[in-house]
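Worked example 2:
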Amino acid sequence: MDIQQICRDVKQASRGLALLPAEQKNRALENLADWLVTHIDLITEANQKDVADGRKAGLTDALIDRLTLTPARIQGMAADLQNVINLPDPVGEVFEEQSLPNGLNLHKQRIPLGVLAVIYESRPNVTVDVAALALKSGNAVILRGGSETIRSNRVLVSAIHQSLEKAGISPDVVQFIDDPDRALVNQLLKMHDYVDMLIPRGGASLHRFCRENSSIPVITGGIGICHLFVDESANLEKSLPLIRNAKIQRPTVCNSLDTVLVQRALAADFIPRLLEYLKADGVTFRVDAGFLKDSGLAEDASVQAAGPDDFDTEWLSLVLGIQVVDGLDAALAHIAAHSTGHSDGILTEDAAHAARFINEVDSAAVYVNASTRFTDGSQFGLGAEVAISTQRLHSRGPMALRELTTYKWVAQGDYLVRG
């Protein structure tokens, strides 16, 4: 494949895309949503072949889960497209208007970033989510999925191109690197003359590789070591099902719970209850070694003493770390030391403790009495997201339509000159 030619084509196509009316972009998304729900069998047939090959290649259960497209998940992808359609088009939005003493009438106007490149692993739904958000926000995009999902992505990209053409939009605005050769990624990372932002979605090694080798600005995120702190004032009866939801609702994703911090005054009563409550779901535990020793709880196949690296592990499975802390200060210190800045929360009835947690925890999403599983573009009312950013520039948390735009200053005068 000629990566430079692909980048030239998508750059050229992006200029026209930025000027399209919202109605035309929405029509393409309607076409795609309709295609998904009427071609579920075709999608799942291709996906099942990817899954079978993934199992043969020894992919982990977490990666297999991310790779799998069920009819329900495909229906969910179509529903997310409808959510994106219903959102206002951010392109052209005028904000921060002001009239200055020097005579300028000034405002900011929202514009697309230009061309995005997204490198991702395992999750073919990302193909649709990213293409939809890029289109609606006026951006062209280059997609590079993993070799493990090549058949699924080929089907989905073909559907995207058909949907664009049916709406009168050039299919060049969505480019797909249909070749698993990793050398092509190295070439893509140097295409700063054509690509405005690079978004890797995958494991820590992919993020590190992109940061170290890209000449394109990189947005990283999607790696979550997520915490919930059970404060002494927490309602324990309500805390148990909340923790269960955060851990087991979909354990293979980045916003699932990895570590529960328990205030020491509650530990002797609450931790055994928590273990018993979650064992029925197949959860296994890495528990504070000091607490295990002092409490007399026996280690077995499901309960083990936490090792030195366990609280720095994103489990992506039914494993839960449990650490006893002396109080809020110790919980904040633990999160500062071990969190990846994704999603962290407190369970409390103490308003002052909640306020301190909100102010002092430096994560992209901070929760009070809610599951970490809500860190998601759809759940946040954004339709979908291209990534969960855990850095400060230029956005944090779920990146959706507005996060895929920048702005320009517009200054108007009456033949105004500077004095």
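The domain at 3-220+391-412 is CATH 3.40.605.10 (Aldehyde Dehydrogenase; Chain A, domain 1). The longest strand covers residues 105-112.
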